[in-house]
Amino acid sequence: MNFLSGRAGWLLLLALGLAFPFLAKNDYHLTVMSTAYIFAIATIGLNLITGYTGQFNLAHSGFMAVGAYTVGILTVDHQLPFWFAFPLSGVTAAVLGFFVGIVSLRLKGHYFSIFTLCVGYIMYLVIEKWESLTHGTVGIIGIPAPGAIGPIAFDTPRALYYLVFFFLVLGVFVMHRIATSLLGRTFMAIRNGEALAEALGIPLMRNKLLAFMLSVFYAGLAGGLYAGFVRFLGPGLAGVDHTFDMTMYMLVGGLGTLLGPLLGALSVPWLTQYLQFLQEYRFIVFGPILVALVIFLPHGIVGTWLGWRARRAAAAAPTPAPAAPATVPLPAGEAQPGAGRA
């Protein structure tokens, strides 16, 4: 983990991602990994508002569905090209997030989470019932694949994999810049104590709203990629169960870290895939594994490692030698106390 926290570690992960299509046994593995990448982008966005800013948004999958349906409606119903609709998926989610955040971020703690849970359910009902716009329960079918960019066409699973992987790398890079900037430290100050942050002169509402909009912008872009990759949409994408899946990814990897949500979003789907031979009984095995992780690694894999490394560094730090007792200068002819004793 210490190695992965440096530039060389991230370059190694980049190399593994580039080499994965040549190591995968079939196109199904590419599909599983590409889908994991898409949800990893959305999870990184959720981690910004939850892990870094301390606000648990339960409507995150609803914003992901907003981005996906933006692409689906514009490409299928209005015949716009994918590359025109795709940027609008993030923008639409962020604009909607502005209005939702203005109201919801006035609440704190569990009240904020309950409010956003209701907002997410409203999004689900709107998608399911507004048939003239969203096609209702039938869903949107026949979403076109991303169009070619020059000589690069995205008509194969491998090409789509590299497209999704590119946006994952871009999303991680931008999030790293945000997290290590003054803005990211401002978000963490709000998470650690709103009263103290406000006393330091940090405008709480403005920064929480900015974090919320950036978070749902990631969700909207992930939804736009999902629409172009899967090419079919249904109301289930807005279900709160997807938000709970992304929350699980953060908890397994490490809340409030950059590598943690990425690690959780890539490892948990593969674990469920390898437990498919158990069919409906796989959750009997998967559930206790998650419970054990939460009990024994409450800060996630990456968070626990970082805490252990910090304690080890503190224990290994040399302790300063005690300073010699100071002597008080005496007038000439007088000796220090105890001087001359045998």
Automatic annotation (TrEMBL):
The keyword Isomerase does not apply. Keywords: Cell membrane, Membrane, Transmembrane, Transmembrane helix. GO terms for molecular function: branched-chain amino acid transmembrane transporter activity. Residues 320-332 have a biased composition (Low complexity). The keyword Cell membrane applies. It comes from the Bacteria. InterPro entries: ABC_transp_permease, LivM-like. It is a multi-pass membrane protein. Residues 320-342 are annotated as: Disordered. This is Branched-chain amino acid ABC transporter permease.
